[in-house]
Amino acid sequence: MSASTPLPRPLRAALLLGGLAGAAQAEDAPSIAWPEPGGRATISRVFNGSPITVGVSSRTGGAIDSLTWGGTEFINAHDHGRELQSASSYDGYGECLNPTEAGSDSDGTGPRSTTLLTELKRGPDTLQTRSQMAYWIEPGRVTGSCPKGPGPHAGPRSDDVLAKTVTLGAAGVANAIAYRATYITAQPHESATFEAATAYMPPDFTAFWNLDPATGQSAPLSAGPGEQGVPVILATPDGSRAMGVYSPALPQATVPNAGYGRFNFATLPGPGNATVKWNCVFRENNVPAGAHSYTCYVVVGTLQDVRAGLVALRAALTGGRAPPLPADPAPAPQAAAPPAARAPGVALYVGTQQGCNAGEVTIDPGYKGCATAPIGATLAQPSSPADTPVYAGTAAGLDAGLVTNNPRHLDAGTRPIGYLASAGAGGTPLYVGLQGGCNAGVVSTNPAHLNCRGAPLGIAVR
To answer: Which has the closest alpha carbon to 164: 281, 293, 31?
Structure first.
């Protein structure tokens, strides 16, 4: 969605049928080799006893579709306009000239993106992607956010390229993520709005705050929509979870009271549709063709963690001193101390009935109405960086109760259920399917479940 217009994508997404397919839906470039099942890549770094885990996917053209900490998912990835991603719009056309990283409006809630992912690299703390971005609205179509009518583009995919680098532990701040977006524009424009980073979040994050990182002063904000020149934080009402954004290049001198936006769509109807949003926006005039780079820093944790992280980031990036934080402006409990090592999480079972659920790991002792046997449990918190997060499906009639390592398994809902212990721990070895169209993402006690390829995943502890 264009960052310069207040009409939210979710209002239209509520009317979309799931899985709409555009004619230009792309597979990834042939050179792309996803390191994890289901077309995924993730990186993790521990903060306050729990890993911050960031994931990108083929479904979203390499855009971030999952960010978890403390057992909480911070990203709404319902359709291709959500996620934590980058977009741009040009020459006053709004959404009708709006290259978008994760895909197009016509991609709906489906499994593929019109965006073409051409490069993917993963390091210990970094993810790098390069993609040819889809136009959000296809040629000839208009929305209520197209002030000049249909855009001048001729095809569903732009010639603009987005090169993105995501780095955990940015500037030495453990809960900070550097998000650097470089737009390589194919042609010049009279004006451009670069939504360098935007995050669509679950509707639980309805407490909006601002923060001046130079002073540490923070105050509540209205639900908006609105924009201001100091960083914005979206938090749960109790302050136990929050996400904020900061860029040392904001506010711009030409728009001193803008740059950080917030939007509340928490009451939208329909499963998965309700959401809230922040963005980190840059506006330029007389934009030449070529590279335009912007960096936004995303900070997660409790509300107090995020306030402290934003202040520390500003000091680290500008060479100044971090001011002392004022008293907490709202009930925002610190993250609880990590539980004792190997504290059990959720009980796990394996299906034992051939032709029904044999070999499938589940949290439901009556999974599929067939017999199961207990095999152990997840860990409530990781006891080592090598422990693996796992999820349980929540979509009735599809994957409810099934255990997977993919938070977007079958493009349906999941919830975190803890971690599998790393190799060497006592318990039941578990495996994950690797073969698309057969067992991809399904956790099993059988390394060749359904006679298809699998790989060791972790240990269910006893």
So the answer is: 293
